[in-house]
Write a structure and sequence with these properties.
By secondary structure, the chain is an alpha+beta fold. It has helices at residues 2-38, 55-58, 113-116, 161-168, 185-189, 215-246; strands at residues 42-43, 62-69, 75-81, 84-94, 100-109, 127-138, 143-144, 147-148, 173-180, 248-249, 254-255.
Length: 256
């Protein structure tokens, strides 16, 4: 019983400690992202540095860059936003060094899908010469909950940079994508102020920068459970000792 109690206590304490570590990480993330959103845009990291970048170094970094659209390589990924359900419009941007950056140009409602989805087998040269500003985001691999991306059918449930780059045969793709524009807090947080679905499309500003931080509550819960196990174990041990010392009352048939 003592060994079992000790195993439970150690496990619960480890879970509580892990939640405190997660809380520290989450607070650092919130502070880092808040600072990045308050700074002016910086140049996109050089493509030669992409392979060594970690998410903490670039995620939600406000950047600027220029390039040409590869509109025939556009893909639509399912999205649920403040404006309802629809699709993100992701179009590769060819940079000056020939590498490519996947840009989330914004949200379109489901009724707009046919207007933004290139026909199967479409091909064309880069067009336009545009300047883009937005937030760098890490890839969203595999798909959505219980839904896998299906490149062959052009069914995308997440912004999986690697899979999209392979399916669209992009040259030297960046390991991240860019959310065009800055978050529109009015759009994301104020239900009454949200505009109607009248465009322009794609709609920028729907990036949600909000991080839940309940790790302290979880840590207190795990630590509290550890204390409860200790107390309960103490009662059991004490009761066992009383049984061993006192024996049984033969007249009544129960322990003294």
């Amino acid at each position: 019983m003592a060994v079992l109690c000790l195993v439970f206590v150690v496990g619960l304490l480890r879970l509580g400690t892990w939640q405190l570590e997660r809380r520290t990480w989450k607070l650092e993330l919130i502070e880092r992202v808040t600072q990045r959103l308050q700074q002016p845009p910086v140049d996109l990291p050089d493509s030669q540095l992409w392979a060594g970048l970690q998410p903490a170094e670039f995620e939600y970094l406000y950047v600027k860059t220029t390039g040409q659209w590869l509109t025939d390589k556009t893909v639509l990924t399912q999205a649920t936003t403040a404006l309802g359900s629809g699709f993100w419009v992701l179009t590769p941007l060819v940079l000056s060094d020939g590498s490519s950056l996947l840009v989330n140009r914004g949200f379109v409602p489901a009724a707009q899908r046919a207007q933004w989805q290139p026909p199967s087998g479409a091909s064309g040269a880069p067009v336009g010469n545009v300047s883009i500003q937005g937030l760098l985001r890490k890839s969203e691999p595999d798909g959505g909950f219980l839904r896998k991306n299906d490149p062959a059918s052009q069914r995308w449930f997440s912004r999986d940079v690697t899979a999209i780059a392979q399916a669209q045969k992009l040259k030297s793709p960046a390991p991240f994508f860019l959310d065009s524009g800055l978050p529109d807090n009015t759009l994301n947080n104020n239900l009454e102020a949200r505009p109607s679905l009248t465009g322009p499309w794609p709609r920028e500003g729907l990036t949600v920068v909000r991080f839940s931080n309940s790790h302290l509550v979880y840590a207190i819960t795990w630590f509290g459970l550890a204390v409860m196990v200790l107390v309960a174990g103490g009662f059991v041990v004490r009761y066992e000792r009383r049984l061993r010392r006192g024996g049984h009352n033969t007249a009544h048939g129960y322990p003294r």
